User: Fold these one by one.
Assistant:
Number 1:
Amino acid sequence: MSTERVAATHRTAPFYPLRWKEKMSEKPKLFGISGSRALRSLWAIEEVGIDYEQVPVSYGADSKAADFTAINPNGRIPALVDGDLQIFESMAINLYLAKTYGGGLYPSTAAHEAQAWQWSVWGISEIEPLQMQIVVQTFFTPEEKRNPKVVDGATRGLLRPLKVLDAALAGRDWLVGAHFSVADLNLAGVMLLLQMIKFDYREFSQVQRWADACYARPALARAKARP
Ligand SMILES: N[C@@H](CCC(=O)N[C@@H](CS)C(=O)NCC(=O)O)C(=O)O
């Protein structure tokens, strides 16, 4: 919701909770750069379409500075400040943004909401550790120290969750309900790293189709164009 819409809502509904009034004074601030996992939350905030400020904190020393660790004591990006709320973890940030400002991006029933949480947690627990092994070996390990067995093992390990995802997507366009939702956003956001390493999805045609549709979203292109 834009600041103007919040302001208009407030004018016509004087008994709105105070937090809306507080939010009118300052835009949400998203901390992190697009060349990091903060891309997931930049994508989310571009999808919901609110006015926001990006604070391009990078990883390394930048994310360990005291003014940033006061927001995220883990010293990791992304983080979000919205009014009194300070929150870290990309999945949690995205669920909050979608629920607070996202309209149709957030499921409207408790069952669909639970499924959105399921896919968000599943991406972080079943996909992320394995894909990170490949990313670390490919991009952050000097060639002479790389261990092809690690990449082979992680690639094999990914086959099981990808098979599950492929089956879940059979006969449906999106993970939850009939349209793109925060469930797709979060899982595809995690899997951006698989796209980066050009993971071969040939065996998983439903995953390929769904990933292509997610990655064609204009909001993602806008997020990638950010610093
Ligand atoms: N689970 C976290 C991971 C965040 C994360 O590890 N971010 C990296 C950048 S890609 C970072 O800030 N690294 C800095 C460090 O570990 O010192 C999330 O999804 O938000």
Number 2:
Amino acid sequence: MLDQHFELSTWERSTRETYDGYATKHIRPLLGTVQVGALNARTFDSFHAELRRCRDHCGRTRHVDHRTPHPHDCDERCRNHKCRPLGAATIRQIHFILSGALKRAVRWGWISSTPIVFAETPLAPKAKPRPPSPEEAARIVTEAWADPEWGTLVWLAIVTGVRRSELCGPWAVTVAVPTSHRTAQGAPLKSPRTRRSARCRPSGW
Ligand SMILES: [Zn+2]
Ligand SMILES: [Zn+2]
């Protein structure tokens, strides 16, 4: 089912490569032998638990994570394995890949309903942006002005906080900012209002 879902999905190339990696490393080794009809909420809950336990699905044996799979002399880069959970964002993406595959299975009449809706949906990771402080942003802008075109772009991005796609579109804006909130080059700077927003905006906007 997964193979056919991958074949028929119209993902972009980079997305497909990422998803192929998830399928090879996580989905196939853990669920590959289970028939679609035998999947249930419990399967998915244990699958998610395993993804949260160890991203290498190590089987809880003591072993060394070698720096390369090829013959080598071990050095400090070869270390005793420590289980690390797979990231919340990746677990969520894997959940949605499976969800898509199962919806297709329902449409094709292979199963009457999709069991994944009864499993817990992995939570989205909390946003932890680390925007530069106003002082750091000022240094970035100052450095960028060495090239006027690059400086303009960086300045615009920092003072408006627009997304990259917004930056590429045609638009015009007038910003009035008190001089007390400007850098030496006149760039208005302010810390984000909330950690979640984490975008620098002109003062008073
Ligand atoms: Zn080694
Ligand atoms: Zn492990």
